[in-house]
Structures are given as C-alpha cells and as structure tokens.
Write a structure and sequence with these properties.
The protein has 186 residues and is an alpha+beta fold. It has a single domain, classed as Nuclear Transport Factor 2, Chain: A, CATH 3.10.450. The protein contains four helices and five strands, in the order H-H-E-H-H-E-E-E-E. It has a five-stranded antiparallel beta sheet, covered by helices on one side. The termini are far apart. The relative contact order is 0.11. This is Mce-associated membrane protein.
C-alpha cells in the first residue's frame, strides 16, 4: 500500500461534492408541505386584505366626490340666489329654477311674485359670495349642506351688507343634485 492512494473504505470529502451536500440538513417532506400551505394561506390572506383595502378606498373616494358635488351645488345655489339686479329678474328666475327640484320650483315661483315688485321698485343690485360651506349629512339621494354667505345689496335708498347662514336641502333626481329647500340657521 502506498501513501499516495487512499485506503479502501476511506474517501476524501474534499473532492466529493456529493458528500458535502449530504451533510446539509434536509427538510422533511411534511415540513415542506406545511411551509407551502402556510405560504399559500399568507398569499390568499394578503390578496384578500389588498382587495378589501382597494374597495374601501374606492368607497371613500366615491363619498368624497359626492360630498364635493353636493357642496358645489349648494354653493352655486347660494351665489345664484344672491346675485341679481332689477334689470334681469327673468334671467335670475330661470337660472335659479334650473337648480331646484320640481317641488321647490313651485314654492320659489310663488315667493318670486312678491319679491319681483320690491326688487324692481328699489332697483336692487345684489352680489353674493360664499364664505364657507360644509356637508352636514349625505346619503344616496339626499343631503344637507350648511352655507355661510354674504351679499352686498345696493338700492336707490341705501347700500347694505347682508349675512346668510343657510341649511340647504338637496335631493338627487335622475343622477343630478337639486335644491329641495333652504332655511336660515342661527
């Protein structure tokens, strides 16, 4: 026997890549299955949470858009109601009426009968501005918006600064928000 050759039954692990791999820990088949199941469950739960979060975000965006729409309509109404002059009362009535529900159009027309004569006699000119608004309530087909506004009213008799605090009630008709009523608030 020479010293250059390994003895039978003794192998050198330095030159045997298979021998080195056999020393690495091997995962049992049941542990691999368990890990696969856990990973699958985690992926499914993550996907479910992601879909739920996306749906919540979409609902939140839709609610914010609805709130913005009703606030915009209430503000437009407030400005339109407070912007008039004695020369264009008919245009004023037409502009405001387009923003009103059918029920409120009737009430507005009756109120205008009394107001038109006063506006023309005093040669009123009014310019309104919205100072602030906030949505009090909103659901699928109705809303209430609080609006704070001022109006500069000029007549042949004097000039006045008027201050308004209104609760504007809106209804959704055929996809369009319309003013259904408004009342002063303290």
């Amino acid at each position: 026997m020479t010293h250059d050759q390994p003895h039978a039954g003794t192998e050198s692990h330095d030159d045997d890549p298979v021998g080195r791999e056999s020393r690495r820990p091997v995962l049992s088949a049941s542990l691999r299955r368990t890990m696969a199941v856990v990973l699958t469950v985690l992926l499914v739960v993550s996907a479910g949470v992601g879909l739920w979060s996306f749906q919540q975000l979409r609902e939140s965006d839709a609610e914010l858009e609805t709130r913005a729409d009703v606030a915009r309509v209430a503000e437009q109404f407030t400005v339109s109601v407070n912007n008039y002059d004695s020369e264009s009362v008919e245009d004023y009535q037409s502009t405001v009426s387009r923003m009103l529900s059918t029920k409120f159009q009737t009430e507005f027309a009756k109120a205008m009968e009394d107001i038109v004569a006063s506006v023309q006699q005093a040669q009123m000119d009014s310019k309104g501005t919205v100072l602030a608004s906030g949505v009090a309530t909103v659901d699928d087909d109705s809303a209430r918006v609080l609006v704070v506004a001022d109006a500069d009213v000029k007549t042949v008799f004097d000039n006045r600064q008027r201050h308004f605090r209104w609760e504007v009630a809106l209804v959704k008709v055929d996809g369009t928000w319309l003013v259904d009523d408004f009342t002063p608030v303290a």
